[in-house]
Amino acid sequence: MAQPGSEVYDDEEFFSKYIAKRRRLNSPNDLLEEPIIDELLAEVVGKVLLDLGCGDGRYAAKLMNRGLKVYQGVDASENMIRLAQEHLREYAEASIERQTLEEITVTRRSYDIVLSRLVLHYL
Fold this sequence. Notes:
Distance between the termini: 18 Å
Strand content: 15-25%
Largest sheet: 4 strands, parallel
Strand order of the largest sheet: 3-2-1-4
Radius of gyration: 14 Å
Helix content: 25-40%
Number of helices: 4
């Protein structure tokens, strides 16, 4: 049975297959979408970013390495949060919260950037 939204990522079989596809060298997310997002974001040094539907946190780590000051990620999937926390464990100014985007409660009052990559079609 199909599962709605981000809940599908907490199905272990689906998640395992998804992560294997995402880690391929020719992943469309990395080859097509990421360079466009990089261009749109431009400079992130010293900025505070909210990432709605942060996924596995690999892109967040790249942003932190580019000089992002504060990163707050939000995702509804336990599996995605676990991976995101692993990818961001060395960054004290990065945090991940488990929330659905339909019921999000923003804990910070201001952000320089709000990002949501390949997420809205799940809502």
